Amino acid sequence: MKILVTGGAGFIGSHTVVELAQAGHTPIILDNFSNSRPSILDGIKDILGYRPTLHTGDCTNPVFLTSVFEREHIDGIIHFAALKAVGESLEQPLRYYRNNIGSLVDLLDMALHHGVRAFVFSSSATVYGTPDMLPIPETAPRKPATSPYGNTKQIGEDILRDTTAMANGILRSSALRYFNPIGAHPSGLIGELPLGTPNNLVPYLMQTAAGKRTTLTVFGNDYPTPDGTGIRDFIHVVDLAQAHISTLESLFAAQESPETFTVYNVGTGKGTSVKELIGTFERVTGITIPYTVGSRRPGDIAACYADPQKIKKELKWEAKLSLAQALEDAWRWQQNSPKP
Ligand code: NAD
Ligand code: UFG
Fold first, then answer.
1. Which residues contact 295 (CB under 8 A, 6 or more apart)?
2. How far is the CA of 201 from the centre of ligand 2 (A)?
3. How much distance in Å is there from the Cα of 232 to the middle of ligand 2?
């Protein structure tokens, strides 16, 4: 199948491009490089032995999208392209709504006009807000979003549900609610390329280990968790990429199913605290991380981890790679990655 991967030069997109190609599909990358660099295509080429097709442009531009859809016969779409910084979205809400919602609406329009059969959307565990139960099943209620970014994921899921309900069974879709993607390709050839100061724990930790940052700040050790630090469900990006292949293939196979829109958690089901993660990194690399404990980061919740049973049962996908493997791979990438 020919699969359009929007945001295919980004962190999760680049790993999914590799997994798609290795599963026998043809990935077509679309990216505007607003949060990535063209050099990631060199890493993809080194892994695959060839350079996938790239269309450089913006998926909020219908003229550009039309030219891509007229040139390629697209069977399915994985839509990663979005802005993703929670804090920035509070400062620039319209930019986030325009980019994240505008791109989804325009792409769905294209999908309907060009007979696309499968659409996978990057949602987030952030839609659950502060959860009432752990682990979190898909049936848990979505809580009112606390940022425009989070709102774009909730609205995005609703747009997808409503659009595919009216698509006469040709277009089917899934929203994948990612927990905390980390790690890098085991080859060390592709990985996350945070531009500027990283917001997320693992990229910050990697840059601290590399000596680029002096100290990691642990945001709070007074949470109601066993060691007082926040708990998250860290999932290896290669496992996450493979979940997209399982989802796409199930959408192509489900052409007779009355269900046109499905939602899946993509996580390991295991909660790990910030302190445990630092300890695992120190154990596998032998590097000591200088850290201090600071105050809680506004908006953070104490604990968040997935109940991954639905995707395991329905799509036969489950996370296979360990936290230690993810941190080793991220560190290998950090040592190889191009310096800004
Ligand atoms: P990323 O920033 O590395 O990748 C996104 C890519 O999309 C970038 O290459 C960027 O240049 C591109 N892009 C953005 N807007 C575009 C546009 N209008 N047109 C064309 N290209 C555009 O982010 P990521 O971590 O790979 O995240 C991918 C998706 O997963 C996003 O939708 C994000 O919201 C979602 N998500 C990420 C996380 C996470 O922790 N990384 C967690 C939950 C959900
Ligand atoms: N943390 C630190 N120090 C840091 C950075 C983070 O202690 O320098 C802590 C946070 O307080 C939190 C944990 O590490 O307890 C994980 O924080 P991240 O920023 O890595 O990830 P979040 O769980 O805050 O957010 C991520 C994505 C969001 C997504 C959410 C879904 O960045 O886009 O997961 O659960 F919405």
1. 219, 220
2. 6
3. 8
Residue nearest (by alpha carbon) to ligand 2 atom 18? 200
User: How far from chain centre, in Å, is Cα 323?
Assistant: 17
Contacts of 198 (CB under 8 A, 6+ apart): 204, 207
Ligand closest to CA 38: 1
Please give the C-alpha separations between residue 65 and each of 79, 108, 122, in angstroms, as whole numbers.
Answer: 13, 11, 19
pLDDT in tens, the chain (340 residues): 999 999 999 999 999 999 999 999 999 999 999 999 999 999 999 999 999 999 999 999 999 999 999 999 999 999 999 999 999 999 999 999 999 999 999 999 999 999 999 999 999 999 999 999 999 999 999 999 999 999 999 999 999 999 999 987 899 999 999 999 999 999 999 999 988 899 999 999 999 999 999 999 999 999 999 999 999 999 999 999 999 999 999 999 987 777 899 999 999 999 999 999 999 999 999 999 999 999 999 999 999 999 999 999 999 999 999 999 999 999 999 998 766 5
**Any idea which residues carry the catalytic annotation?**
149
Residue 141 φ then ψ, to 5°: -70, 145
